[in-house]
Design goal:
Layout (H helix, E strand, L loop, with lengths): L2 H8 L4 H12 L4 H7 L1 H4 L4 H30 L5 H9 L3 H8 L9 H7 L3 H9 L5 H6 L9 H17 L2 H14 L1 E6 L17 E5 L5 H12 L3 E6 L2 H12 L5 H50 L9 E5 L6 E6 L5 E7 L8 H14 L4 E5 L4 H9 L8 E5 L4 H5 L2 H6 L5 H14 L1 H5 L18 H19 L1 E2 L5 H4 L6 H15 L16 H7 L3 E2 L17 H10 L4 H4 L3 H6 L12 H12 L29 E10 L2 E5 L6 E4 L20 E10 L4 E8 L1
Parallel strand pairs: 4-7, 7-8, 9-10, 13-15
Antiparallel strand pairs: 1-2, 1-3, 4-5, 5-6, 11-12, 11-14, 12-13, 14-15
């Protein structure tokens, strides 16, 4: 089976687009590069469609690899016929492949294998034919030193028949279909753990049953976590009688002794071999789907967080709030470099409000601070109130920043390398300040799983999660573009074609030789060859360089085309940039060639209109309701401002300025049916909500979205 045909069967894409994309991937082109700069070749596929081709390509290669291993095994066993080989080569999924291989698979010693060794396979064939009605007489012929009587002979033969039944693909698929449509996941609490305090968060699942095919991903993952922690027992149930009747109709041909024995073998095969195996398979499939759903939610949230609004290059004073240990204060320049750090104690038990106020006023004047960033952890609201009450000479906006993962960063090797002479508290405060200036540039330094924008991230397939999150980070970094003269190695490592080693080489080159003045200079970086330059150059920006195109997403391979367009218009290239009137006059069709089609030409013109434009919106200041300090201040019917801080499949959580986030259930997001939550809210979005219900005992708040 050809790769192209395999992808065609699983994706609604043209054969030409698939073939050309595969060729580009085989040439080590990255997904962002292909999507942005090879539109003519792919038929204008976007990153999602190219990503699907990548996924299907990997699936196909895994399938082909497994086929080769199985064919080799069958050859070694000397059982590979031309018919079997042809059958294996035509298979298009791993499950069917493993079913065909099952009878030949090396197993630990089974009851059926022992029976065969005792010479009982001929007896099993006689019984399976269902033509004999005097089995004791037939069985007596198989008594030997290992088989003492007719009963043992019949038992051994039935073990062989049970194995035959369990290996039949049609029987396995029959049970699979029943499990897929009608199976139920059932939970029971472990009685000795029922009153365990930690078990109470899983109380809803102490006695639960639900159709396995319809259970939401978050609920299945919660149930599996409760099982893993030993609070409940989980099993998959099905209507055994109905399934057995269907198998009987397939296998039982005679109403005689042989038919009765086959009936016993069916029951044994079903309960001992088929059901345990296939219910485990069904649960694994359900878990895999739940993982995919949870990972999808996580990746959407991460993308929204990474593309959060940046304040831009500003001089920032950042505070990492605290009570007893004080508030760590840092001052950063426009590039995010640390200029000063200290600690203030405006809160109990010290209550040094006056001294702390004086310190903040002094630092704002000394470093000409333009904005203040406060972490949203412990003492955040109190610190925000304290700062806003300081009588400053000029108006400075105060921002509360999500500090999730800041502690992970501050203790990381990246942070130690950046600030070897400072402790974790200073590093954490710096991260809070930098997140305000540019969330993307700072968050890429942290393991995405630690950012806290998903559910059950530790319960899903970790390799799939990492791969998906890395893909999202790569997408976001390349969508925004990177200033090569200020970017950290962490940020650069996600640029198309770069990777961690080349990122370090870029930073080292920059430190030793000064800033890059043109994109051509990038080629001077050690080990950065032609391919890496081709893949990365369009995503690397050079501000205030010698060539204005270097601060745009126009690829260097298109510079000559832009120069030709400018020359034809009697202008310099500089004259085109930002000049909408001139750009509108360009007759794109006359510049179409085999190398440059209309999609690329339109992209170039769009970029020339606003070169290097950051696709992210600017950060906006926000204030919580000052009257709300704890959950005890919350009352049903209140209208409150909030910030969306997590999105799940069943709704979104909103920070309303207290320790407990409120939940807007999917049913309370809109008056109409909500198909995709992300169409109604986004992470870090400022919203207005209405309090519907407060459960003080369980510290849960139900909200309704009333204003976006």
């Amino acid at each position: 089976m050809q790769l192209n045909n395999y992808i065609l069967q699983h994706a609604q894409l043209s054969s030409t687009s698939i073939q050309n994309t595969i060729e580009l991937l085989n040439e080590d082109c990255t997904v962002p590069f292909i999507a942005r700069y090879r539109k003519e070749k792919t038929g204008n596929l976007d990153e999602v469609e190219i990503g699907l081709i990548v996924k299907l390509k990997e699936q196909f290669e895994a399938l082909e690899k497994r086929k080769l291993a199985i064919l080799k095994s069958l050859e070694e066993q000397d059982v590979l016929t031309n018919e079997l080989k042809e059958k294996i080569e035509k298979i298009q999924d791993l499950t069917s492949l493993e079913d065909i291989y099952l009878p030949y698979k090396k197993k630990r010693k089974t009851k059926a294998e022992t029976a065969r060794a005792n010479g009982l396979e001929p007896l099993a064939k006689i019984i399976m034919s269902q033509r004999n009605n005097d089995l004791d007489t037939v069985a007596s012929k198989y008594i030997n030193k290992d088989i003492k009587n007719e009963k043992e002979a019949l038992e051994g033969a039935l073990h062989i028949i049970s194995e035959w039944i369990s290996e039949r693909t049609d029987i396995r698929n029959l049970i699979r279909r029943e499990l897929e449509r009608f199976s139920t996941i059932v939970t029971k609490v472990v009685k000795t753990k029922k009153d365990d305090e930690k078990a109470q968060k899983f109380k809803d699942y102490f006695d639960w049953s639900e159709n396995l095919s319809r259970i939401p991903s978050h609920r299945l993952l919660a149930i599996l976590r409760a099982e893993k922690e030993g609070f409940i027992r989980v099993k998959v149930e099905i209507d055994d009688e109905r399934v057995l009747e269907k198998i009987d109709r397939k296998l039982i041909k005679s109403n005689n002794e042989s038919g009765a024995e086959v009936q016993l073998a069916i029951d044994d095969a079903y309960k001992r071999l088929l059901l345990p195996s296939l219910t485990t398979e069904a649960m694994n499939i359900a878990k895999e789907k739940a993982d995919e759903s949870a990972i999808e939610v996580f990746t959407k949230n991460l993308e929204q967080l990474l593309l959060g609004s940046p304040l831009g290059e500003k001089r920032i004073l950042a505070l990492d709030p605290g009570f007893r240990t004080g508030c760590k204060v840092v001052c950063l320049n426009k590039q995010g470099d640390l200029l000063h750090n200290t600690t203030i104690f405006p809160h109990p038990p010290q209550n040094q409000v006056s001294e702390a106020s004086h310190t903040i006023e002094h630092l704002i004047k000394k470093f000409n601070i333009e904005a203040i960033s406060i972490g949203n952890g412990t003492a955040s609201r109190e610190t925000e109130r304290f700062v806003k009450n300081i009588p400053l000479a000029k108006t400075i906006e105060v921002f509360v920043v999500n500090e999730a993962g800041a502690s992970i960063y501050s203790a990381s090797q990246i942070a130690r390398d950046e600030f070897p002479d400072y402790d974790v508290t200073v590093r954490g405060a710096v991260s809070i300040g930098r997140r305000l200036a540019d969330p993307l540039a700072e968050l890429v330094k942290i393991d995405a799983k630690s950012i806290g924008v998903g559910q059950y991230q530790h319960d899903v397939d970790q390799s799939k999660l990492k791969k998906s999150l890395d893909t999202v980070v790569e997408h976001c970094v390349n969508k925004v573009g990177v200033n090569i003269n200020t970017a950290s190695a962490s940020l650069l490592s996600y640029v198309s074609g770069i990777g961690s080693k080349l990122a370090e080489n870029i930073v080292n080159h920059r430190n030793e030789n000064g800033v890059f003045k043109t994109r051509k200079d990038i080629k001077k970086v050690a080990r950065l060859g032609g391919k890496a330059f081709e893949q990365s150059a369009g995503f690397l920006r050079i501000k205030n360089g010698e060539n204005p195109l270097d601060d745009s997403s126009v690829h260097p391979e298109s510079y000559s085309l832009v120069n030709k367009i400018a020359k034809d218009l009697g202008k310099n290239t500089d004259d085109l940039i930002g000049n909408y009137k001139i750009l509108k006059e360009i007759k794109l069709q006359q510049y179409v060639t085999n190398s440059f089609g209309l999609p690329t030409l339109k992209d170039i013109v769009k970029e020339l209109e606003k070169p290097g434009l950051d696709p992210r919106s600017k950060a906006k200041a926000f204030s919580f309701d000052e009257t709300i300090q704890t959950i005890n201040d919350i009352k049903v019917g209140q209208i409150l401002p909030g910030i969306v801080n997590n999105i799940t499949n069943f709704g979104c959580f909103v920070d309303i300025g207290i320790k407990e986030s409120g939940l807007i259930h999917i049913s309370n997001l809109s008056d109409t049916f909500v198909k995709d939550i992300n169409e109604h809210v986004s992470l870090q979005q400022q919203v207005t909500v209405k309090v519907l219900e407060v459960d003080f005992a369980r510290k849960r708040i139900q909200l309704q979205l009333i204003k976006k």
